[in-house]
Amino acid sequence: MARFTILxxxxxLILVAAACSVLGxxxxxxxxxxxxxxxxxxxxxxxxxxxxxxxxxxxxxxxxAHRRWHESFLLSSGAGAGSRRxxxxxxxxVLSGFAARLTDDELAAVSRRPGFVRAFPERRVxxxxxxxxxxxxxxxxxxxxxxxxxxxxxxxxxxDTGIDEKHPSFHDDGMPPxxxxxxxxxxxxxxxxxxxxxxxxxxxxxxxxxxxxxxTHTTGTAAGRFVEGVSAFGLGGGGGTxxxxxxxxxxxxxxxxxxxxxxxxxxxxGMDAAVKDGVDVLSVSLGGISTPLDKDPIAIGxxxxxxxxxxxxxxxxxxxxLPSTLSNExxxxxxxxxxxVDRSFRASVRLGDGEMFEGESLVQDKDFSSKVYxxxxxxxxxxxxxxxxxxxxxxxxxxxxxxxxxxxxIEAVSNAGGAGVxxxxxxxxxxxxVVEKYxxxxxxxxxxxxxxxxxxxxxxxxxxxxxxxxxxFNSTVVGVKPSPIVAAFSSRGPSVASPGVLKPDIxxxxxxxxxxxxxxxxxxxxxxxxxxxxxxTSMATPHITGVAALVKKVHPDWSTAAIKSAIMTxxxxxxxxxxxxxxxxxxxxxxxxxxxxxxxxxxAVDPGLVYDLGVHDYAGYICRLLGEAALKIIAINTNxxxxxxxxxxxxxxxxxxxxxxxxxxxFAVNRTVTNVGPARSNYTAKIEAPKGLTVKVEPAxxxxxxxxxxxxxxxxxxxxxxxxxxxxxxxxTLSWLSHDLDHVVRSPIVADSRLTLx
Length: 758
Hints:
The chain is an alpha/beta fold. Helices cover 19% and strands 26% of the residues.
């Protein structure tokens, strides 16, 4: 079985070429899942086996009949009486198939059995607040929370590391019971309440306890209840109120990961159960390297979930800022990028010459700031692995090659008697500073640009004995500008698995997010806390999951594509300073990094127009991209065939974003919008295009006379006369403005000379 080491965010990001994108935070000392066995079974590995559905008279709810059908494939392989034991999971909802441990000979025998479709070895996939609700415009006093009843009545499912069910974020005071359609339950000894209505484990320990912390954090971010007086390590707003995006929503938790990691067979089992149980939205902060859609179990399972009305929200990956590093790229999932919030855990470095540099830290010591310390920097020992000089009582400057400082450097400074440490961010991370809790050694992390200036001061002149510094701790600062910016680790497009489809779809807060944490899981060394600060697209994903639940509450009859469109087309392209959203280098961010823009919940519930898509549309895309064999694998429980479908390229898919080739010849795409606003509505097209790009829309006016009326228009894009032939990328926007200006329906337009349409 292919293995990917699960690492904490700081380590995984420097191993992009060797491993795969990490979508969150997991303990570094994860142990591999045992392959077990000896003799004949020593070479066995777990396979996900896709088979045709059982005989037509078998009902989908007849779990026993499905399992017997699946076991029959193993009996025919010569596995004998052991077959029942070796069916790890039997899938009936998001797949027709099973997971089992098979030797090469047994797999060959299974593949010859009538009804066999395909088998592939499972991979190991990886785990991808008090401030972000307010930053996104969610307040208890009114607005979208009141309009949506805080998401009450919607059900969010989480595929993650479990949950700390006793955490105050998951109390059910004043909550109604789940809706009658709910079929799930809580696995003993967990007791369900009106908040946590489902909990099940699909991993070896068979408990839903979150011994990693990731699942509790993501669940709290999406739908945690209001908790007063919250802080982490004395930070986070001086004891503010924590809440998730949809605090009134019900939760169902499916533990598919543990300290050993996350395996695709377990993930599919959790997805299978969640869809059968009746969740509305499924949050998946997991993923791996980019994989063709017909070989990606998350994409295959999500396709079935979408056909049953379940929106699947997935993390885009943490392998940025490199291009084409995305995970979870299928057009039927909502792929999330990560950005910053307007909060800083401020720890500024003040030099002896009076110059000040803003940094951040979760270790804050106000008494430290009242003193001045000798400043030490060694160009030869700049990574602080060890010291050959006396640094007792000094503030030490250290470089780092990881997004957050390695514990070994902190221990080296502490053991050598250093009073404090200033870590210089790696250059690729620009203005992104990822913080984590460490030992109580006063410290600050600064950008590479500021770090270069601090190093220059430390090395100035022939003697450094008079160079001094201190770290000024300002606790938590809010209202930081510019915000949001794209987090450096957030994976970027263009998509490899879904060419022609603009990914990621949307950006949400994912940098230094404060949310619920199991107090039994140590933070720092070895410190307990019921809230923690974590970074990753794993943290951005539940923000969008919660917003999707709010939209679902207001529009229960909308398709998953309509909800996705509403979130994308109402997003913002500007930061809190009124300028275009920037990337980690403070350059204009490409749509390949932010998707359509930064989520705006208050607008998402009332988008005016939506771009809708159905199963046949996605199937047509699969036919054009991968062919009939792939369609059979991805849409295995349907009767769809490419012969009966109209193949469609990514450019022509009715997506809320437009991605086309950049060339001198005009390239036209069609789009259809559905009126979900006032019955009588009129919209005018507004084009924003850079110099060198020509964009035309026909018709430029849309008039609607009823709700759910559909209108089709054509967008034609070409390189303008005289444009440079060396230009690779040009970006603009198409916005439909209602005449009363109550609705602005904005879509990004990306013209890329590297895009080819087969």
